[in-house]
Design a protein that fits this description.
Layout: H1 2-7, H2 13-22, H3 25-34, H4 37-40, H5 53-65, E1 71-74, H6 81-97, E2 102-105, H7 113-125, E3 142-146, H8 154-167, E4 171-177, H9 185-188, E5 192-195, H10 201-215, H11 221-231, H12 235-248, H13 256-263, H14 268-280, H15 283-296, H16 300-312, H17 321-339, H18 344-360
Parallel strand pairs: 1-4, 1-5, 2-3, 3-4
Helix pairs in contact: 5-6, 7-8, 10-11, 11-12, 11-13, 12-13, 14-16, 15-18, 16-17, 17-18
This protein binds adenosine-5'-triphosphate (ATP) and magnesium ion.
Length: about 350
């Protein structure tokens, strides 16, 4: 049974059972082969969530006692927030009742004030099904999961304050977001808060190692180190990259080079070369340089973050802190303009000329 659940990731058991009836073995194998690994290896139990020990121990206690508070989970992407809540609901209600006891809403749903009033109230008012299971605590509550709640309007959040109070006898709210500062204080203060941190190197390596073993990926240790390095504690990103590199590597082992190739990271020599040219050239050549950068087709957001990395590291020690701060400001300004839809060509020229000005002033 365990192997069966592992193969089928976080699908509800009902759905899995249906699949078993309908699918011949090879079709099932195909499905497992093409299933995204982020789903295949999504933790099914709270204990499988890596690197968030406080959250894991607090929620395990809640499962033991059956007492669930309103929850607010926040932290950077790919650190296990959504997975934790889904695992919690499975462990509370079991596969049979888990779907009927949760309402899951994310940023793709309409979450304006009208939606809060209707959808949430309708679910919160629902009489909850009687769940009797000796294997799961099944407390008499239901969960409303508001994923990516930082994209909810302030009005919709304000409307939720009252709803939470009125229905709290049988409904618990789980608010999930990246930026806790975007959740209004009266809402945040009604919840027990848990901060998710970027996954530490060791924990990330362990999980990636496990996936490589399961998927029989012959790899060099440097490949896993490279994955950890380029993803900054984002487990989702590292698993996705491992899957795409694992599909396409040539040679007999997956290496760091294969990872850098799929990561979109710009080779450090290229960044260093751009920096040296900015330091040494006149303005006319800088615009030529900008043209070359665009023609090479590099991801400009990636270029910005690697430039900042270079500026802050020891290789640029002789540049004063004030100049470094001004360069960071220009990079931030450029990023903002690009997000707003500004032209890459104009912005890269502006960026490089401004950095050259700062360095040569
Ligand atoms: N702490 C973790 N332990 C084990 N696997 C994890 C962890 N965090 C993330 N993952 C893996 O990454 C995938 C995405 O995780 P999840 O959806 O929980 O991230 P999130 O924190 O909700 O991110 P976002 O803020 O972008 O919504 C999971 O399916 C799982 O494979
Ligand atoms: Mg999420």
């Amino acid at each position: 049974m365990e192997a069966f659940l592992k193969r089928n990731g976080n699908k509800s058991l009902k759905k899995v059972e249906k699949d078993v009836e309908m699918e011949p073995d090879d079709e099932k194998d195909n499905k497992s082969r093409y299933q995204p690994w982020v789903e295949k290896y999504r933790p099914n139990k709270i204990d499988e969530v890596s690197h968030q020990p406080e959250v894991v121990s607090a929620l395990n206690k809640s499962i033991e006692t059956g007492k669930i508070p309103h929850l607010l989970l926040y932290g950077p992407p790919g650190t296990g927030k959504t997975s934790t809540i889904l695992a919690l609901s499975k462990e509370l209600f079991g596969p049979e009742f888990h779907r009927s006891r949760i309402l899951e809403l994310n940023a793709s749903d309409d979450r304006g004030i009208g939606m809060v009033r209707e959808k949430i109230k309708k679910f919160a008012q629902k009489k909850i099904s009687k769940a009797v299971s000796s294997d799961y605590p099944c407390p008499p509550v239901q969960l409303i999961i508001l994923d990516e709640a930082d994209s909810m309007t302030v009005d919709a959040q304000a409307a939720l304050r009252r709803t939470i109070e009125v229905y709290s006898a049988q409904t618990r709210f789980c608010i999930i977001c990246n930026y806790v500062s975007k959740i209004i204080e009266p809402l945040a203060s009604r919840c027990v808060k848990f901060r998710f941190t970027p996954i530490a190197e060791e924990a990330q390596m362990k999980r990636l190692q496990y996936i490589c073993e399961q998927e029989e990926i012959n790899h060099d240790n440097s490949a896993l180190e490279a994955l950890v390095e380029v993803t900054d504690g984002d487990m989702r990103k590292s698993i996705m990259m491992l899957q795409s590199a694992g599909r396409s590597y040539e040679g007999d082992k997956l290496t760091a080079e294969d990872i850098y190739e799929v990561s979109g990271k710009i080779p450090i020599e290229v960044i260093q070369d751009i920096w040296d040219q900015i330091l040494n050239q006149s303005d006319t050549n800088i615009s030529e340089l900008a043209e070359n950068v665009i023609q090479e087709g590099y991801d400009i957001m990636q270029l910005l973050s690697q430039l900042i990395e270079l500026v802050t590291n020891a290789a640029t020690r002789d540049v004063s802190h004030l100049k470094k701060a001004r360069i960071a400001e220009i990079c931030a300004e450029t990023e903002f303009k690009l997000i707003k839809g500004g032209s890459e060509e104009l912005n890269v020229s502006y960026l490089l000329v401004s950095i050259s000005d700062i360095l040569n002033s």
